[in-house]
């Protein structure tokens, strides 16, 4: 369960958001509408001017980023110098969680991660995003935030469908933001961001 009631002013822009949901949430909206700002507040990168963020009934508003058990994925959130396998286990190792090779291989195959041990920086844009997204699941956080992190993946709809299913199976909450409204059909809840405010579609 994610509960968010926050206000955040950035110069002339005001983010004013209030929602409470469980499961998979899609947020669509135009560039500059406040989608990324909201994710940065939830992740702890930005501090709200007022309000709170609660995850599973725990107030995380003032917790540092590394204590929130949240992973934020963007198209640039990969580590280019790590080879593929080390990248996939990087987040889990930070948390002291062991990941066996079988689990890595099964997830990588299911989500179409290439079976090659290149440096992640040498992969295609879509495969870089896949690596970041699989790394996030293997970290086993309470919440994954995806900021346009599906945008360069080929067969995107197929990938999102599987990714959403994996999050549900692993009891991971997921919020993903996108400009493509078609992507929202895989979510349990769809919101549209407009000028810093959320409007529920379903």
Automatic annotation (TrEMBL):
Catalytic activity: tungstate(in) + ATP + H2O = tungstate(out) + ADP + phosphate + H(+)
Domain ABC transporter span(s) in chain numbering: 1-201
GO molecular function (one): ABC-type tungstate transporter activity
Catalytic activity, EC: 7.3.2.6
Similarity field: Belongs to the ABC transporter superfamily. Sulfate/tungstate importer (TC 3.A.1.6) family.
Quaternary context: The complex is composed of two ATP-binding proteins (WtpC), two transmembrane proteins (WtpB) and a solute-binding protein (WtpA).
The protein, known as: Molybdate/tungstate import ATP-binding protein WtpC
Biological classification of the source: Archaea, Thermoproteota, Thermoprotei, Sulfolobales, Sulfolobaceae
């Amino acid at each position: 369960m994610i509960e968010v009631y926050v206000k955040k002013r950035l110069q002339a822009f005001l983010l004013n958001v209030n929602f409470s949901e469980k499961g998979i949430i899609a947020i669509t909206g135009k560039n500059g509408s406040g989608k990324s700002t909201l994710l940065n507040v939830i992740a702890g990168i930005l501090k709200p001017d007022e309000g709170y963020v609660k995850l599973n009934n725990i107030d995380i508003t003032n917790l540092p980023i590394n204590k929130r058990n949240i992973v934020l994925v963007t198209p640039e959130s990969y580590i280019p110098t790590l080879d593929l396998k080390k990248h996939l286990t990087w987040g889990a190792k930070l948390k002291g969680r062991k990941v066996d090779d079988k689990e890595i291989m099964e997830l990588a195959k299911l989500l179409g991660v290439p079976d090659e041990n290149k440096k992640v920086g040498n992969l295609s844009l879509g495969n870089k995003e896949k690596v970041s997204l699989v790394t996030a699941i293997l970290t086993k956080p309470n919440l994954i935030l995806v900021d346009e992190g599906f945008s360069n993946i080929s067969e995107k709809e197929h990938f999102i469908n599987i990714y959403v299913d994996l999050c549900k199976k692993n009891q991971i909450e997921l919020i993903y933001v996108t400009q493509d409204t078609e992507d929202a059909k895989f979510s349990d809840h769809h919101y549209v961001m407009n000028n810093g405010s959320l409007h529920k579609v379903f």
